[in-house]
Design goal:
The complex is a heterodimer of chains A (199) and B (117). By secondary structure, chain A is an all-alpha fold. Chain A has one domain: Cytochrome c oxidase, subunit III, four-helix bundle (Four Helix Bundle (Hemerythrin (Met), subunit A)), CATH 1.20.120.80. Chain A is 82% helix and 0% strand. The termini of chain A are far apart. The model of chain A has no long low-confidence stretch (mean pLDDT 93). Chain B is mainly α and 117 residues long. Chain B has a domain at 17-70. Chain B has helices at 19-41, 47-68, 79-109. In chain B, helix 1 runs antiparallel to helix 2 (47-68). The longest helix of chain B has 31 residues, at 79-109. Chain B starts with 18 loop residues before the first helix and ends in an 8-residue tail after the last helix. Classes of the chains: A mainly alpha (199), B mainly alpha (117). Chains A and B meet through helix 2, helix 4 and helix 7 of A and helix 1, helix 2 and helix 3 of B.
Chain lengths: 199, 117
């Protein structure tokens, strides 16, 4: 093989992650539509309490503020993981990913604690249309965060095994879009569900 | 990092922020969140105004995180990302506002008061 064919051969096999990242961006856009429909359902049904409690009797603002700060900080620490990729030191990236994972896990634990308390007090998804739409909207977000946590673990494993390569960087970028997107959805959850519910 | 041109990663085609942009976005988001919770928690404004102000603060924070965390920009290399986002935004507005519009009129015409149900 002469040099020219070798060069073109290598060029053809050069990994181009931009289409993967853009494709994942389009998936996130469709996920936005999913959340939009759930928000619309919540907006219509939140007054239908069937004689049961309204949001302002159920939600604790300091609790939700803590959840919000934890998730926001995890978005920031993920950004620091992204920045650390340029150092070429996979251990720094992995360290920030672990911190993001712990923060995300804390968020999910708090959410499950809240759901558990509501359930124990008799406020379940079967109580009223308001609570059905509340649990559907908030737990759909929670399931996304849980999926993100599993993905972070897989990402850490991949970085340990293969290091910072074009492939792992592409996955790190897609996961980053996903993680930041979940924080953006949460802005609207805490504003529309918890804050507007407490007014 | 160039000052005017965003830096695109060779392997992923994505732009990344700098330490400064992530920190800026984080601090602004924290401040906006605290203002929202403070306004509602202490009932600083009349009810009707609270709804509007808290809603606006959420939209501002959406914009801040889109720019500083998701690095959405008007740069030509990222134009498809922005275009698909704007289209999604249009769909979201049609779904949410359309639903509320239809359901509100349904309640009106059927003589039901949404607030009493």
């Amino acid at each position: 093989m002469n040099n020219a064919t070798l060069a073109s051969h290598e060029h053809a096999h050069h990994f181009d992650g931009s289409k993967y990242v853009f494709g994942f961006w389009l998936f996130i856009m469709t996920d936005c539509i999913l959340f939009a429909t759930l928000f619309a359902v919540y907006a219509v049904l939140h007054t239908h309490t069937y004689g049961g409690p309204h949001g302002n009797e159920l939600f604790s603002l300091p609790f939700v503020l803590t959840e919000t700060m934890i998730l926001l900080t995890s978005s920031f620490t993920y950004g620091l993981a992204m920045l650390a990729r340029t150092t070429g030191n996979k251990n720094i990236v992995i360290r920030w990913l672990w911190l993001t994972f712990i923060l995300g896990l804390s968020f999910i634990s708090m959410e499950l604690y809240e759901f558990h308390n509501l359930y124990v007090e008799g406020h379940t998804w079967a109580t009223s249309a308001f609570l059905s739409s509340f649990f559907t909207l908030v737990s759909t977000h929670g399931l996304h965060v849980s999926a993100g946590l599993v993905w972070i673990l897989a990402m850490i494993h991949q970085l340990h095994k293969y290091g910072i390569t074009p492939v792992s960087k592409t996955k790190l970028t897609s996961l980053g879009l996903f993680w930041h997107f979940l924080d953006i959805i949460w802005i609207f959850v805490f504003t529309i569900v918890y804050l507007m519910g407490a007014i | 990092m160039a000052k005017h041109e965003p830096e695109f990663d060779v392997d992923t085609g994505a732009t990344y922020g700098t330490h400064k942009s992530y920190t800026t976005g984080f601090i602004i988001s924290v401040v906006l969140t605290l203002i929202s919770f403070w306004l509602v928690g202490f009932g600083v404004l009349p009810k009707a105004q609270l709804y509007v102000v808290v809603g606006i603060l959420a939209l501002v924070q959406l914009f801040v995180q889109l720019v500083f965390f998701l690095h959405l920009s008007t740069h030509s290399k990222a134009s498809w990302n922005l275009l698909s986002f704007l289209f999604t935004l249009l769909m979201v507005l049609i779904f949410v506002l359309g639903t509320l519009w239809i359901m509100y009129h349904l309640y009106e015409n059927m003589g039901m008061n949404a607030m009493s149900m």
